[in-house]
Every structure is written in C-alpha cells, then in structure tokens.
Amino acid sequence: MYILSIVGLVVLIYLTITFVLYYSQRSLLYHPTENNYSGDKLTVPIDKVRIKTNDNIELLSWYHDKDIQNYKTILFLHGNAGSLENRIHKINHFNEMEINFLIISWRGFSGNEGKPTEEGLYKDAKSAVKWLINKGVKKKNIIIYGESLGTGVATEISQNESFAGIILESPFTSMVAAGKSKYPIFPIGLLLKDKYESDKKIKNIKSPVLVMHGEADTIVPFWMGKKIYELANNPKYYYFPEYDDHMMEYNDKLLNTLKSFIKSLN
Q1: Which pLDDT does position 90 carry in this prediction?
Q2: Are 210 and 257 spatial neighbours (Cβ–Cβ below 8 Å)?
Q3: Where are the domains of the chain?
Q4: How far is it, in rounded angstroms, from Cα 226 to Cα 247?
C-alpha cells in the first residue's frame, strides 16, 4: 500500500505539472515585460511608426530610411523578450552600414494590443513586409533578420519568397525540440500550441541565408543553429563564435560578417 501511495503521489504531481505547463505555456514562452538588455542611447535616426495588421492591431515600430532606392532594407524580427529599446545596441550599428531598417514590436509587446501567438506573430511580420512594399521597397531588396524566437517567424514568412537574404541569429530547429531540451520528461509535442517548426521549413527558403549562433549558447543549444545551417539551401553562410552565449556579442567580427553578407547580396 505504501508503494502504491508513493506511485500515486508521483503520478499526481506529474499530471499537475503537465496541466500547469499546458495552461501557462504562452506565459513561459513570451516575456514582453522582461528587460533583457538596457542602458544604450539611440544614435541612429528613426521614425516611430504604427503598422496595422490584417486583424487590426497596430504595432509600434521603428523605421530608418537611409536610401530605399539604392540600399537594402532589413526587417528585424526580435526575440521572445523585451522591447524595441532592448535592441538599441544592435540597431545603432546599422547606421554604420549602407542599409535601411524596420524593427517591429510584436502584438502584446511594447504596449501593443493583442496577445502573442505563433499565428499572430506570422501576421505581424507579414504586415510589416506589406508596409515596406507600400513604402516603395521592393521585395527583392528586403533582408529578413530573425533573432532567437524571431528566427521561427523569419523562416515561416521567407518560404518560397524572393527576399534579398535571410539572417538567423541564435535559431532553433523547432519549439518542440527546444521544449524537450528543457522539459525532457513531459510530452511537449502533444502539449505545445506554438511549434515554430523551422527545421521543416528551411528547405523552402531560396534566398541566401546567414546563420549566426554562439557555441556557448545556454538557452538555445548550439547544435540547433548548426542543424539549421546544414538544412539550409545554398548559398549559405555561418558565423559560429566559440564563446558567445545566446545574447551574441555585437563585436567587430560579427559586424564584419553582417556587412560582408549584405554586400554579397548586391
């Protein structure tokens, strides 16, 4: 009886945790109020714009127009935490490049209405592409840049499209695989609502791809970035610094990699 009671208790605890994981999964995945990087001053001129999605949500976004006729335009899709301000340390460097950029904040982030979901983020990104096209930017001059969770969105919207190039920073193979690496004893494939299956979609991308991933990443295992690179079509390029964690160092080596990739697209 004692053993049966212990087994029953273990099963009850397991089912309780499974229940909690299922119903709280989106709060575990999306962290709009987390301040994961701050303190930088914006040194690149931007226009604050509102981009309306096809389900009538307005997304706060920053737009930098250097020369849309002669330079490529980056559409920056950020990760699962924080605000636009948390990417200042990255986009400041774009001012050093012959590039325009648009960085959007997801639904539910930066005071935007709505709640983040996989399908919702796809709508947000596609609306941003449409906004750029309406500004006069040709699709063949748009570079889709995904950061962490944003790589899942970038991969989705880049399938069978004619974008100039795709940049994937700290990508994962799928959210199911990422979830299993964190919660190996739970049936993540059955529980997960937002799966972001990039490994199944990367072969559908015909544009040049740059994969950047730190080998010391403690959040998204490095093997995932390497696998995405291996699955990608040519032409493809990689930047795998040995000591970078998930928040990659925006140092001269990384910046030179970005500049070389962008230059190769001309």
Answers
A1: 94
A2: yes
A3: 2-264
A4: 17
Query: How does pLDDT run across 108-137, given as a tens digit for each residue?
Result: 999 999 999 999 999 999 999 999 999 999
CATH superfamily of 2-264: Alpha/Beta hydrolase fold, catalytic domain (3.40.50.1820)
Residue 146, helix vs strand vs coil: strand
Structure tokens, 230: 């291996």
What does the pLDDT look like over 151-176, one tens digit per residue?
Answer: 999 999 999 999 999 999 999 999 99
Query: 79 — phi, psi (to 5°)?
Result: -80, -160
Spatial contact of 227 and 199, defined as CB atoms under 8 Å apart: yes
Residues 161 and 147 sit within 8 Å (Cβ to Cβ)? no
Residue 105 vs residues 13, 50, 63, 137, 220: alpha-carbon distances, Å: 38, 10, 12, 20, 22
Determine the Cα–Cα distance for residues 162 and 142; give it in Å rounded to an integer: 9
Q: What is the pLDDT of residues 190-245, one digit of tens each?
A: 878 889 999 999 999 999 999 999 999 999 999 999 999 999 999 999 999 999 99
**What's the whole-model pTM score?**
0.93
